[in-house]
UniProtKB/TrEMBL annotation:
Organism classification: unclassified sequences, metagenomes, ecological metagenomes
Pfam families: 4HBT_2
Species whose genome carries this gene: freshwater metagenome
Record-given protein name: Unannotated protein
């Protein structure tokens, strides 16, 4: 998955609590997976953890193409598609071990100056780090 800026792929397994009564991934698991990958990307970029509470998601789109089951190894990829003055658009996908796509989507976050005010311009260092094409990988599948 290639985007305009920074990207990360995290290999992990589908956890039991991420499945539903039908035995496959619950729809909401994708949101947790992308958020985990995004937060890890921010850590890889050296962004202060205190920033996380000031970047709410304001839009998300998800398409589900295939089911995932307990203990399946998956690759969760998140990549920066566009960095705006105060927003950042991401693309994401979840691939099965055989490389086939199970979930795809996109979402937008907005930087706020505090937890109670409107949007604010990204700090220059964060904007530059998000915009710089660089890829990270992490394996959490053990």
């Amino acid at each position: 998955m290639t985007g305009a800026g920074a990207a990360i792929t995290v290999r992990r397994r589908v956890a039991w609590n991420e499945t539903d009564a039908a035995g496959h991934n619950h729809f909401s698991a994708a949101f947790r997976w992308l958020e985990e990958a995004e937060h890890l990307l921010f850590r890889c970029l050296g962004v202060e953890p205190a920033l996380i509470d000031r970047i709410p998601r304001v839009h998300i789109e998800v398409d589900y193409a295939d089911r995932l089951y307990f203990s399946d190894v998956i690759d969760v990829s998140v990549s920066v598609a566009r960095v705006g003055t105060s927003s950042c658009s991401f693309d994401f996908e979840v691939r099965k071990a055989d490389g086939s796509r199970a979930i795809t989507g996109s979402y937008v976050i907005v930087h706020a100056s505090s937890t109670s005010s409107g949007s604010a311009a990204w700090p220059t260092a964060v904007s530059e780090a998000l915009s710089r094409p660089q890829e990270f990988t992490r394996d959490h599948s053990a």
